[in-house]
Structure formats: C-alpha cells, structure tokens
Amino acid sequence: MFTAYVIVTVATIVANGGMAAADLSRAGFVLANSAEVGVPRSWLPWLAGLKAAGAAGLLLGLLGVRILGVAAAAGLVLFFVGAVAAHLRTRVFHNIAFPVGYLGLAVASLVLAVAVAAR
C-alpha cells in the first residue's frame, strides 16, 4: 500500500508542479484553454499557486506530515472538480480528459493518503 501511495503521490506532485509552472509562464495551451472555458488571465497566477500549494502539501505528506498530505490531496480534488465543472459549464469537451485525469490523480492520492495515515 505504501509503495502505491508513493508512486501515485509523486506522479500527482510532478503533474501539478508542471501545470503550475505552465500557468505561471502563461504557456500558449494554458492561455487558449483558459480563454475557452472562461477563466480570466488574471486568475492564472492564483490557480498556479493553488496547484503548487497542493503539490507542496503532498510532498510534505510524503515526508511524514500525513495530515497535510491528506488536506493537500483533498484540496486538489476540489480544485479539479471545479476545473471539470468549468469544462462542462462551457461545453468544452474536446480536452476535458486533462482535468479529469488530474482529478483522477488527486482522488487516488487522497484515497491512498487516508489509507496510509490511518495505519
């Protein structure tokens, strides 16, 4: 169980850290996607900060602060539920797999973090 927790959580950290960097650098695909789903450019640094905070919290959870890892994973789940909702609201389905994939990683991290913390 612990090995699965580490693998999934590291994947979630890398994915969210990479997306936070893309948001901060205002990568072309980020600007196109955010415009398509109605997210103002002014929100990008804040959204990047939330993703980076989630990744940092997951890392601290791996390093032993289990409750922080659980809280970070829960926060990322909520964040990506919002991202999926934004895609559904605006009927942007051609790239909905990305927020759904990130949501899946966040849910898996949360389930495993809770399981490991309960031990």
- Roughly what fraction of the amino acids lie in strands? under 5%
Distance between the termini: 10 Å
The poorly predicted ranges are: none
Oligomer kind: single chain
Spell out the helices and strands N to C.
HHHHH
Major beta sheet, specifics? none
Helix content: over 70%
The coarse silhouette is: elongated
Radius of gyration: 14 Å
**What is the count of DSSP helices, taking H or I runs of 4+ residues?**
5
Structure commentary:
The chain is mainly α and 119 residues long. Helix content is 82%, strand content 0%. The protein is built from five helices and no strands. α1 packs antiparallel against α3 (44-62) and α4 packs antiparallel against α5. 28% of the residues are buried.
Which features does this protein show?
single chain; 119 residues; mainly alpha
Map the helices and strands.
Layout: H1 2-24, H2 28-36, H3 44-62, H4 66-90, H5 97-117
Condensed summary:
With 119 residues, the protein is mainly alpha-helical. The protein has helices at 2-24, 28-36, 44-62, 66-90, 97-117. The protein has one domain (2-117).
